[in-house]
Amino acid sequence: MHCTRKITDHIVWVGGSDRRLALFENLFPIPRGVAYNSYLILDDKTAVVDTVDASIGRQFLENIQHALAGRSLDYLVVNHMEPDHCANIEELMLRYPQMKVVGNAKTFGLMQQFYDMDLTDRTVVVKEGEALELGAHTLRFYSTPMVHWPEVMVAYEESQKILFSADAFGSFGALNGCLFNDELDFDRDWLADARRYYGNIVGKYGLQVQAALKKLGGLEIAMICPLHGPVWRSDLGYLLNKYSLWSQYQPEEQAVAIFYGSMYGDTENAANILACKLADAGVKNIAMYDVSSTHVSTLVAEVFRCSHLVLAAPTYNNGLYPAMANFLHDMKALNLQNRTVGLIENGSWAPVSGKTMQAMVGELKGMTLLEPVVTLKSALKGDSMEQLDALAGQIIATLAE
Question: What's the pTM?
Fold first, then answer.
């Protein structure tokens, strides 16, 4: 049975949600599921903008059939060739033999890598700035490479001023009937997932996101239709500001997040005491995470949010506690930068975790390392408490800058 919603009088959302999938890309936990958005334009010619993941293929095809109401499908626009958006291309080609597939040269190169489809006389190759006329609706195409694949483009519908933005401006989370941003409480229910989605899926490509924002900045945009998450038809400045901050690796908030790894509780105790010292000094909304039990995608998202990070970890096998090492590895892989960082190390006989964290943080751009590095030898004692006091003072002073 079909499940669709109107975007405008002549554009229909024909996507769906998957609440059964546990891991997006088999990596990222999605306890709230994920939405796969697709859009059908009904005009003199009809066009679908992107397909969906195979997991909801039946729902998608029923939606298309219902929305077409007996009409044929003339075009399929492929903005992004990732399998969660292109899994139904061949099925549409078989069901609608007159349909042509619209993409750029790189689109069709990837299509041939994924599938063994005969594309003879079935393709429309578009270049930067070229348009597809559907009648009253015109789609104009702009390349946005590496946001976050090399072939990605966006489609701008000129009459309604709608940007079909591919994976940009998306979010984890299934849609619960409310499709539009003004139908839901975004800050309460969606912002954390949108940040985690951006940080882990698109976060590495800040320069490319900045280039895309600049390129699209001259367009008058009334609505943004991403491939995941809510459709934005109001307060676009809010969303664009988030992307501007995230893509420049500037913190959303002057806030402290403490990330600790602890084998037997002593390093955790030091982290807790530091948090209390900061709170006593008036620091609010301090975040704390055990890196051993918190998925690294959540840790990465908090780095995008917070200005100040504290990393606390013991020495392990004459190196760094593995969960903390993995976190720092992901931070480097995602090009995270421009944060203020405090360090707490622990080691019963030869503490080296501090030096290792210093070296790994030093590989990241624009990071300010606070002094002192707090050194515990097994447990917090008088001398290390003095160091912890000094670190708390440095955090408080730099928060005020």
Answer: 0.96
